[in-house]
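re: the backbone from monday

yeah here it is again, tokenized this time
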């Protein structure tokens, strides 16, 4: 039997852009030791970027055994780069970072086999761990490869797909027998599927990792036990059901699938076409400390899922609003607010939202959405109040536009059926045009937040202008002779927009 090896610590497999804008690939050791020289991790799939990010956070937390206090965090941040503890940790666990180790393959389950009823191994295609490809009953997202066709992955690509699958795999039918776990009927969602994950980023990967490196102790970011550690340190075979993580490091590196990649070699090239797979652990009852929270009408909280037809910035009120007694924002916001009182932090950050939209286990879209925000938006309730006011105004602008379009349709068609009017109003595309154009205005609104009062005044003008443009472009050219209907719609819009800032 051939012996394969792929050292994830030193072999290049993580793509990045450096501070000069040049692109390359490195292993885990170099991406961390050179993090101060790297701008960001880059991948065509943003879910892979954030999956890598969580793994790197787990490595750092474990290597430094913390940070447990604000002073420890401050010393790390002010050093400007990661120290030798990272290299020492990776060297200690080097054997666990071999993708194809026969006894301890990275993020996998040694000895796993999917078998038929006679006990014969029946490896599965690696397509099933690639969300962008069709597999089983899943719809194709961005690729027209199906499970019936062969997909050949390089070791680097296999590692990328493996980590992404462990964090973003979707529930669904399994109906397979394995040698280790017997028959499994279905799969559960991975830990990152059920919400919108928030990351704060700065000028370098080092800064981004440090900003999101929360204080780690017995109760934070989630309760821990003495057995908490990254998945690659565990010697037991994790379970196959919903469970409670042993702590934050276990949660960061949750193994939601038992996987064993099957490497092959041809003409000197090592590749992966097949694997064995089964359900592993799931953590459905844990509140992800990096997820957006929203409040229901009954006062309870929940993690909203990504809506492919609604950009994340439209939920900015829920994302940034906070109460001193009930602060449900992503914990990185609390962390940066607290650390800002002990160390000189930048005045602006990039707030990045990562998420996967799905419907009944079918991937619909993935999203990486950036917002350039001032530090004051994380710490000053008065600045946040201006943002909340602005988001209320943009929603009122959309309702004013909707009312104007409906009044046009009522007059033009002389129709009283509200259902028919609603359908005709939506078909104009005015609402979609409004939100599409307000996106760029929103980013300008955030850039202007250093003077929130003037920012709000400028934002109000942008809302009114965009509402008028949307009405004009979607109705005037299409219905050139509908003068009466147009005048009624315009009057309706002006009346409603007049009270926008009341």
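seq for it, each position gets an aa:
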């Amino acid at each position: 039997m051939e012996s394969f090896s792929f050292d994830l610590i030193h072999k290049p497999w993580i793509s990045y852009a450096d501070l000069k804008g040049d692109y390359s690939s490195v292993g885990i050791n170099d991406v961390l030791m050179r993090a101060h020289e790297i701008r960001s991790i880059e991948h065509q799939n943003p879910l892979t970027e954030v999956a890598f990010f969580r793994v790197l956070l787990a490595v750092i937390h474990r290597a430094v055994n913390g940070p447990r206090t604000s002073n420890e965090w401050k010393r790390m941040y002010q050093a400007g780069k990661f120290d030798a503890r990272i290299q020492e940790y990776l060297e200690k666990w080097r054997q666990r970072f071999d993708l194809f180790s026969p006894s301890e393959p990275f993020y996998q389950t040694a000895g796993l086999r999917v078998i038929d009823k006679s006990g014969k191994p029946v490896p599965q295609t690696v397509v099933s761990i690639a969300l962008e490809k069709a597999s089983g009953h899943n719809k194709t997202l961005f690729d027209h490869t199906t499970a019936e066709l062969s997909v050949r992955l390089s070791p680097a690509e296999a590692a990328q797909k493996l980590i992404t699958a462990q964090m973003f795999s979707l529930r669904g039918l399994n109906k397979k027998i394995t040698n280790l776990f017997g028959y499994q009927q279905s799969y559960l969602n991975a830990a990152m599927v059920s919400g919108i994950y928030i990351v704060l980023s700065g000028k370098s990967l080092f800064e981004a990792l440090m900003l999101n490196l929360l204080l780690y102790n017995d109760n934070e970011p989630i309760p821990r036990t003495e057995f908490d550690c990254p998945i690659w340190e565990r010697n037991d075979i994790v379970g196959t059901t919903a469970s409670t993580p042993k702590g934050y490091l276990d949660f960061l590196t949750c193994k939601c699938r038992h996987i064993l990649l099957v490497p092959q070699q041809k003409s000197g090239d090592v590749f992966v076409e097949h694997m064995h797979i089964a359900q592993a652990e799931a953590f459905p009852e844990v509140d992800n400390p990096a997820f957006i929270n929203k409040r229901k009408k009954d006062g309870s909280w929940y993690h909203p899922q990504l809506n492919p037809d609604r950009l994340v910035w439209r939920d900015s009120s829920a994302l940034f609003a906070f109460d001193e007694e009930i602060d449900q924002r992503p914990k990185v916001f609390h962390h940066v607010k607290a650390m800002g009182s002990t160390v000189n932090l930048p005045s602006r950050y990039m707030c990045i939202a990562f998420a996967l939209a799905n419907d009944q286990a079918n991937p619909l879209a993935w999203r990486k959405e950036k917002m350039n925000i001032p530090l004051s938006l994380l710490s000053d309730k008065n600045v946040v109040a201006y943002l909340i006011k602005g988001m209320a105004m943009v929603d009122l602008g959309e309702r004013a536009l909707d009312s104007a379009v409906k009044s046009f349709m009522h007059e033009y068609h002389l129709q009283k059926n509200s259902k028919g009017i609603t359908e005709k109003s939506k078909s104009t595309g005015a609402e979609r045009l409004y939100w599409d154009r307000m996106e760029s205005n929103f980013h300008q609104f955030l850039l202007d937040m250093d003077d929130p009062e003037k920012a709000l005044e400028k934002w109000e003008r942008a809302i009114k202008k965009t509402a008028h443009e949307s009405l004009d472009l979607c109705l005037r050219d299409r219905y050139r002779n509908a003068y009466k209907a147009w005048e009624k719609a315009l009057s309706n819009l002006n009346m409603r927009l007049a009270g926008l800032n009341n």
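The CA atoms of residues 63 and 86 lie 6 Å apart. Residues 14-279 form one domain.
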